[in-house]
């Protein structure tokens, strides 16, 4: 049903109007009432909007009857191309841990967002948060585990590492 040639929608529009007029005439006769022209116009507009949404009407097919299309509130202007933009997503670093008692039972679980950081920074922030929580709860015997060998080396071998890892207070 797609209109292929320029101005072809005007022919279809005439057919739709005639069809809905004929339907309304028959329904009015059945009701024993007068025709409802507003309903005919609504039916034509609704059908045209549905055909447009289904992309069965091309923009060029409205040439020669653009004024009618505007009256029927059917947009016929050319679409502008969407602008391309480059987007970069920075994965937020965060982490957490657990605090367990001497029997391995969970006492506390925590998680925290650290913003954009390296994985080593995130590991050190997680450890710092866990140690602070232990200190707040007067837990003095602590066994800490970290996933990063580099973070472990920074803590145990006296390596200073980058300056920002030195000041994780």
UniProtKB/TrEMBL annotation:
Pfam families: RVT_3 (PF13456). Gene3D superfamilies: Ribonuclease H-like superfamily/Ribonuclease H. This is RNase H type-1 domain-containing protein. It comes from the Eukaryota. Keywords: Signal. InterPro entries: RNase_H-like, RNase_H-like_dom_plant, RNaseH-like_sf, RNaseH_domain, RNaseH_sf. Residues 1-28 form the signal peptide. SUPFAM superfamilies: Ribonuclease H-like (SSF53098). Residues 94-159 form the RNase H type-1 domain.
């Amino acid at each position: 049903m797609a209109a292929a040639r320029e101005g072809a929608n005007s022919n279809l529009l005439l057919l739709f109007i005639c069809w809905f007029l004929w339907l309304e005439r028959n329904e009015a006769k059945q009701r024993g009432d007068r025709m409802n022209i507003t309903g005919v116009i609504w039916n034509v507009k609704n059908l045209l909007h549905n055909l447009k949404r289904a992309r069965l009407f091309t923009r060029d097919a409205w040439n020669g009857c653009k004024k009618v299309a505007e009256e029927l509130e059917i947009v016929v202007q050319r679409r502008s191309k969407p602008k391309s933009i480059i987007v970069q997503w920075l994965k937020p670093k965060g982490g957490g841990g657990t605090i367990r008692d001497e029997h391995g039972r969970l006492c506390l679980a925590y998680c925290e967002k650290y913003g954009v950081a390296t994985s080593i920074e995130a590991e050190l922030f997680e450890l710092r948060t866990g140690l602070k929580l232990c200190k707040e709860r007067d837990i003095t015997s602590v066994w800490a585990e970290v996933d990063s060998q580099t973070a472990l080396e920074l803590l145990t071998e006296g390596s200073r590492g980058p300056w920002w890892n030195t000041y994780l207070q």
